[in-house]
Amino acid sequence: MTDVAMGATGGVSLGIPQMPAPDFPADVRARLEADAKEVIARYPGSRSALLPLLHLVQSEEGYVTRTGIRFCAEVLGLTTAEVTAVATFYTMYRRKPSGDYQVGVCTNTLCAVMGGDAIFDELKQHLGVGNDETTEDGKVTLEHIECNAACDFAPVVMINWEFFDNQTPESAKQLVDDLIAGREVRPTRGAPLCTYKETARILAGFPDERPGAVEASGGAGPASLTGLRLHKGETPSRVVTQRAEPDDRPTGGATRAPEEGE
Ligand code: FES
Questions:
Q1: Where is average pLDDT lowest: 71-75, 190-194, 195-199, 241-245?
Q2: In percent, how much of the chain has pLDDT > 90?
Q3: How does residue 227 score in pLDDT terms, banded at 50, 70 and 90?
Q4: How far is the CA of 120 from the centre of ligand 1 (A)?
Q5: What secondary structure does DSSP assign to 125-177, as a single string?
Q6: Substitution candidate for ligand 1 out of 148, 161, 241 with most atoms within 8 A of CB
Q7: Element (H or E) spanning 144, and its range?
């Protein structure tokens, strides 16, 4: 590849210099190229593979580095400017070294009034970090995030994109303490938690090989299904969000989903 990209315009040079960046070590590069080839083959046009390939390079380094951007540009025939534009648009791509666990506290309207703001403030104090900052041990990156489309379980915390529903400041502190101590943490719904790099590889389109992980993906909770029944004109039983006292919560900081009729 020359230092001037050909872009995705059928070989017409855009005249844009490629961003300088070191390459991956040869063995890593060979492994990632094989993975990238598999991903690209799933799409009719190679540039459609950019989003999963950004997850792929993130799974290697924990965030999207200049090296990762250069790699994506080279294997897809894009400019580094085009890849950078995408990598900086989506919040699921991190641009600096971050923790094994991305702890996102929803502070959008509903979660905020249901306790999301209090959870976020409490975690900042508890962890000694601000928004988008990482604990010194490299375990936890804290951030406030926008609506996760899980408002019926507000306030919601997401760790590496897995849901932890109906949280409180105390349960959220227990969650991060468990993560830092290396204790098992189970999401309220979905597959067991894994590290950010492991999650990024799954998002790149590679199978989750952990026994039972796929089967544990779960489904909609009672609160969500109530909305569906209303939409169908049925009269659902009343659903009241269960916000158990800290002593009643299961270990690992996760809360249980409310049973219908509770
Ligand atoms: S407002 Fe938090 S999930 Fe929608």
A1: 241-245
A2: 65
A3: confident
A4: 14
A5: HHHT--TTEE-TTS-EEEEEE---S-GGG-S-EEETTEEE-S--HHHHHHHHH
A6: 148
A7: strand 140-145
Tokens standing for residue 109: 């309207």
pLDDT of res. 119: 98
- Tell which atom from ligand 1 comes closest to the C-alpha of 153: 3
CA distance linking residue 215 with residue 220, whole number of Å: 14
Domain ranges of the chain: 1-97, 101-248
Ligand 1 atom with least separation from CA of 154: 2
Tokens describing residue 161: 């994109």
Architecture of domain 1-97: Orthogonal Bundle (1.10)
Rounded Cα–Cα distance for residues 30 and 175 (Å): 38
- CA-based angle 212:163:190, to the nearest 5? 20
* Residues 59 and 197: beta-carbon distance below 8 Å: yes
Q: Assign 162 to helix, strand or coil.
A: strand
Residue from 107, 111, 163 whose mutation best tests the ligand 1 pocket (most atoms within 8 A of CB): 111
Domain 101-248 fold: Glutaredoxin (3.40.30)
pLDDT at res. 246: 45
Q: Which atom of ligand 1 is nearest to the CA of 110?
A: 1
- Ligand 1 neighbour 110 (Cβ under 6 A): yes
Nearest 5°: the CA angle 12, 16, 21 is: 120
